[in-house]
Design brief:
Length: 104
């Protein structure tokens, strides 16, 4: 059963920064309080414990970020099972050097 070990593609935070000018879907899977503490403007907050409720028919490719990269990897596996093509952001917000915005 090699299906369990499907490789989730990943990119660096630097690569993500270069993609933000295009129309990408970025999911921040941290808790709402972490998200409010500072997030990437384009990111939509879908906490990991709610990831299975995410649905957006128009997006097949979704970028997933968390604080360090562990929760986003977990979320990416769930999203893959749901038919999305997730891309994990390695290092997460702890590696992010770009602009952040606080609040909702």
């Amino acid at each position: 059963m090699f299906g369990l070990f499907q490789k989730i593609p990943s990119i660096s935070t630097k690569e993500l920064e270069g993609l933000l000018t295009s129309n990408i879907t970025l999911l921040d899977v941290r808790t709402p309080s972490e998200y409010r503490g500072g997030h990437i403007a384009k990111a939509k907050n879908v906490p990991l414990n709610k990831i299975t409720t995410y649905s957006n028919a128009s997006d097949k490719e979704v970028y997933v970020i968390c604080q360090s990269g562990m929760r986003s990897k977990n979320a990416a596996k769930q999203l893959k099972k749901m038919g999305y093509q997730p891309i994990n952001v390695r290092g997460g917000m702890s590696q992010w050097a770009g602009k952040i915005r606080g609040g909702k």
